[in-house]
Design a protein that fits this description.
With 89 residues, this protein is an all-alpha fold. Helices cover 82% and strands 0% of the residues.
Length: 89
């Protein structure tokens, strides 16, 4: 994540702004439809952050396995993917 760290921080700051906007919308009694649209935007943005982090972690785990032959990182990756892609353990 070192290379994309600044981009990730910027993305999270934009999400932070979206959440503040959502708070203001609720304070102002904006319509449910508008609030739900904003919630979807925040949720989508967070899913994208999660996707980027999972992808980078997967790449590191596979590279480490290829380099060392140690399956523990792959097992950790499989467990993590299971938790974050629908399956609960």
């Amino acid at each position: 994540m070192a290379g994309g760290k600044d981009a990730m921080i910027n993305r999270l700051r934009r999400i932070e702004g979206q959440v503040r906007g959502l708070q203001k919308m609720i304070e102002e009694d904006r319509s449910c439809e508008d609030v739900l649209i904003q919630i979807n935007a925040v949720t989508s943005a967070m899913h994208k952050v999660k996707e980027i982090i999972l992808k980078e972690y997967a790449e590191r785990c596979v590279l480490e396995y290829e380099t060392t032959g140690d399956r523990s990182k792959l097992d950790s990756l499989i467990s993590l993917l299971s938790k974050h892609m629908g399956g609960r353990r």
